[in-house]
Amino acid sequence: MRLIGILPIIFMVALGLYAFWDLKIDGSQPPVPADKLADSNPEIEAIMAPHREALKTGLSNRIVPQIDESLDLIAEEFGELSPEMNQALVETSIMLSQSSRADLADDYMQRAVDVSREVYGTTHRETALALNDLANLITDAQDLSYSEESIAHLKEAMQIRQAVLPADHPEVIVNEVNLADQLFLQWQNEGLEEDKSNLDTAAALLSHVMEVHTQQGDDVNAMDKASVQLLFARVAFYRDDFENAAKYFAETLSPVAPETDPATYLVFSNSYAEHITSLNELGRTEEADKMRADIISYLQTDTAVPEGTTDIVEE
C-alpha cells in the first residue's frame, strides 16, 4: 500500500527529470522571467557586425541576401524558435532601419515578434519591446504619421508592460506616449468629431505620464517633459478642455517675437492657433489679441515663415 501511495511522487520526479533532460537535448534554455530582457549573445553580435559595417557602404542589394544567409545558419545552429534567432532578427531590423533599406526593417521585426511570442510568451517584456519597435517601423516604412496596425501593436505592448513592469518604468512611459500620439493623429486625420474616445484615452495616458514626470522632478529630460505637455495641451483643446489646453500651451510655447526661429514657428503654428482659440473660449480675449498681434507682426518681418502659413492666425 505504501508503494501505491508514493507512486504519484515518483511519477512527478521522473517527469521533472525528463523535462530537464529534454531541454538539455534540444539545446533550448528556460525562458527569461517575464519582467526581464534576455542577455545579448556575443556570438550573434559577432555574426551580425560585418553586415552592419557593410550596410554603411550602401551596397544593400548585395548585403541583404548575405544577411538572410546568416539568419539561415543561425536558425540551423540554434533553432528557428530560439533566443538567438530572436536577437538576430531584431538586430537585422535595427541595422536596416538605420541604413538605406529601412523599407525592409518592419518585415524582420514582424518575424522577431512571431519568434518572441513562441520563445518568451505572449506576456513577456521581450515581446512587448519587439511590438513597440514594430509599431514605429511600420509608420516609418510606410511614411505614415499613424496606422491602425501600429496602434494595435502599441496597445498589446502596453498591456504587457503594464502587467509586468512598474507603472513608472521608462518602457511603460514611452509606450504610453507613443500610443497617445498615434490615437491623437488617428482622430485628427480621420475627422472623428463625434467619437472622442481616442482623445479620452490619449488624455488619460498622458495624464499618467505627467504625474510620473512630476514625481521624478529634475530627473526628467526637459524636452521630453515639454513634448508630453504640448501633446496633452493639443488633446485637451480638441476635447474642449480649454482650461488645461491654455495652461499647458502657456508652459510649452514660447512667445512669438521677431527673433523667433522661423522653423520653430512653422512646426508649432497649429499649436499657437489652438492656444489663441483656447484663450478666447475662456474669455481671456486681451491675451488672445496680444498673441495674435505678436504673430502678425512676426509674420511681417523679413525672417517670417514663407507665405501660406499666415492664415493660421485667423482660426
What do you see in this structure?
The protein is mostly helical and 315 residues long. It has a domain at 32-165: Tetratricopeptide repeat domain (Serine Threonine Protein Phosphatase 5, Tetratricopeptide repeat), CATH 1.25.40. The protein contains 13 helices and no strands. It has helices at 2-26, 42-55, 60-78, 83-97, 105-119, 125-141, 148-164, 170-190, 197-216, 222-238, 242-252, 262-281, 285-299. Helix 2 packs antiparallel against helix 3 (60-78), helix 7 (148-164) runs antiparallel to helix 8 and helix 11 packs antiparallel against helix 12 (262-281). The longest helix has 25 residues, at 2-26. Mean pLDDT is 86; it is low at 1-30 and 308-315.
Summarize the structure.
With 315 residues, the chain is mainly alpha-helical.
Residues in β-strands, percent: under 5%
Q: Please give the share of residues in helix.
A: over 70%
C-alpha geometry: elongated
Number of strands: 0
Question: The CATH topology of one domain, please?
Answer: Serine Threonine Protein Phosphatase 5, Tetratricopeptide repeat
H/E element sequence: HHHHHHHHHHHHH
CATH superfamily of one domain: Tetratricopeptide repeat domain
The poorly predicted ranges are 1-30, 308-315
Q: What does the average pLDDT come to?
A: 86
Provide the gyration radius in Å. Answer: 26 Å
Number of helices: 13
CATH architecture of one domain: Alpha Horseshoe
